[in-house]
Amino acid sequence: MRLSFSSAPNVPHLLGPWVERLRTRLDLPLLLRWQGGSGFKLGEFDQPRVTIDVLDATGAAALLSPSLDNLGQAYVEGHIDVTGTVQDVVDMAYGLADAGAQQDAGGHWLGRVVHHLTDATSHTKAADREAIHYHYDVSNAFYAEWLDPAMVYSCAYFENGDETLAQAQVKKIDHILTKLRVQPGQRLLDIGCGWGALVLRAAERFGARCVGITLSQNQFDLATERVRAAGLQGRVEIRLQDYREVHEPFDRISSVGMFEHVGLKNLRAYFQQIHDLLTPDGWALNHGITSSDAQNGETRHGGGRFIDRYVFPNGELPHIGTVLTTMQEGGLEALDAENLRRHYVRTLRCWSEAFEAKSAHLKTLVDDKTWRIWRVYLVGCQWSFEHDDIALFQVLCHRAGQPAQGLPWSRGWMYEGASGVHPH
What we know:
- By secondary structure, this protein is of the alpha/beta class.
- The chain contains 16 helices and 11 strands.
- It folds into 2 domains: 5-105, Nonspecific Lipid-transfer Protein, Chain A (2-Layer Sandwich), CATH 3.30.1050; 123-415, Rossmann fold (3-Layer(aba) Sandwich), CATH 3.40.50.
- Keywords: Lipid metabolism, Methyltransferase, S-adenosyl-L-methionine, Transferase.
């Protein structure tokens, strides 16, 4: 439903009946106010956990059709304000979106159709470079405020559950390199190397000779400086390069939090490229977010549309079944798949809590719109992982058609001690 600004005086009369209809299905500790005036309660409570102040008719229109996309857009663009913890705010948003979905049962189907009509040409090298620039080049200082000191921007690995974020990120990197059985002197390619944490660890602790590639200028600059500061220029090379432009062979390949940018229609070619870059006895590991929709549809209630609009332009999430199928089509055999969904819940909670704690300083680094985008994005993703809308899989693979006898008999090698080097 659309409202024009000329209809603003009638907004309270529209919101009142809407609230009454919702209260027959919902009981939320949520107070709704029009331009700071008297409020509408969406449940039975003494004190609201969240208050939504509707600032104009555009904000009211978002509430009358409360998808996550509409609500998120209204908040980011300043048409509504919210009071309450960010965790409570997202809980209320999902409650409203659930109610809105009941009124629009065809919305999810329509979103899936639109999703599948996305043209693969949107993932040209130029388009992908621009999308990476938009997301990762906000500023290194911005990310440094709420990531761990190594600035690892992907799901951590909480081996025991009581680790700090920094400890869990080191364990994640070691978990990947141990799964890959990285050996001294091997050549390792890290596709989407971020700020360089994995290649630095692989060189220092595992003795590998590494190449890290990224499309982000900011990441390239800082990662290069970190390599220089560690004295590893002879063992680690950082490149500003697209994965499709790499041609030399590697013994090991890691791709962490990158294939979400590849595009569904390009997954087979992506895995084919990894196949072509691997030595005949090489191993690769793909660590990435997946959809829980078996048809590769977007996340519930328009959350995917919000992320595409404001956070990850051109990002697409495949189901793990699609990952395994396209991996095989690309000439790779999956050896092991591990779901780290609950680990990403905790990772995102750590990021969101740090973001909230540093909010005052973050607002000096970015404009208010960017701050709002990231605030709701981090906690919204946490909710999606918590409720199985999305997941995180690590898939270990090698070239298909290899003899089976060379593989270990059990998964024990993945969980050996922290010595760093794991012999064949």
